[in-house]
Amino acid sequence: MTQPESDRAAVVFDERLTDYDFGPSHPMAPVRVKLTMRLAEELGVLDHLDIVGASSCTEDQLAEVHTPQYIEKVLKLSKHPTHADPSIGLGTEDNPLFAGMHEASSLIAGASAEAARLVWTGERRRAINVSGGLHHAMPGRASGFCIYNDVAVGIRWLLDHGATKIVYIDVDAHHGDGVQAMFYHDPRVLTISLHESPQTLFPGTGYSTEIGAKGAEGSAVNVPLPPGTSDAGWLRAFHAVVPAIVREFDPEIIVSQHGCDSHMDDPLTNLMLSVDGQRASYLAVRDLADEVTGGKWIATGGGGYAVIDVVPRAWAHLLSIVSGRELDPQVATPEHWRAEVERLRGQPAPARMTDGRRAAFRAWEEGYDPASWLDRSINATRTEVFPLLGLDPLY
């Protein structure tokens, strides 16, 4: 018996999404997305996901979150990528110019808007844009490898089509500053970001005191984590803050960003998660969506710069969880995929879908340790935000 489309999940993807390419020496190599999709295909994950093609955002859609002046400059530089404009963050070391960057960026934004449409209209149960999650782009400026903010485009699509309560959960090692900034004055959108402390990592924002603008207090939640935080600490922080807030806010839909640069092998950050801990975070977001929103969940990718050892495995797990058929962490990576990695990158690929870690943690209810930087950070967030949502920070 054929499963109805509305009971299935979708991945919005086509090969053009990997045209977002800052060049061979840039950390955000598009091969990470290609290898993710090939690994997911060989593991049978894509058998349980409908692949839906992406369409570019219109300039009008982009202008709902970006200034018309910025879009015009991106269009111009996209056609003539020879004159840097650092005033809008383009032509910098983080965001080099490349021909067709408007088209590549607007396609990623369109893919997130399509994922939003698929879930909000009930055409699909869940949806994911693994090439998305470009959460640093600001209304009038590129930032942190991000030209257009596809996550914000997707959230704005939901608001324009009737959503009144949206939760955005960002688990990237970097603060989700662009998404927060775009909805900082909007009480309909609750942004939650768990990230490495702004004292030690770009973009230098995301303190627990950032709680939303006047009239939207409590609509921004930030949990800055000490460098060196591993699976147990990260999961302790997540479960001490996120579930209670999401339940109290009672959203209609969850949008999430799953940058996997929190991994211990990532070259750009200082967190120490394993693939197993990251997988546990994906399951936690899935479980919240199932509990609170009736399963309405839109997921995106994000950062991740260990492009062989981490990103494909982490996001293949994410794809499988979105599909409803999660992978066994003990499964071996396919031999053909490992051979392709060696051919493309000249280095051996991981042999299994696990790092061999156990994603266990001590619950917040078991006690607060004021001598712990992690616990002080968790407590600061709870103290700042919980009362604004009618929650007791002590329990």
From TrEMBL:
- Highest taxon of the source? Bacteria
What keywords appear on the UniProt entry?
Acetoin catabolism
Alphabetized Gene3D superfamilies for the sequence: Histone deacetylase domain (3.40.800.20)
Q: Please give the pathway this protein is involved in.
A: Ketone degradation; acetoin degradation
Q: Name one GO molecular function term.
A: histone deacetylase activity
Q: Start and end of every Histone deacetylase domain?
A: 26-320
Concerning Pfam families, the annotation shows: Hist_deacetyl
Family membership: Belongs to the histone deacetylase family.
What name does this protein carry? Acetoin utilization protein AcuC
What organism does this protein naturally occur in?
A: Aeromicrobium piscarium
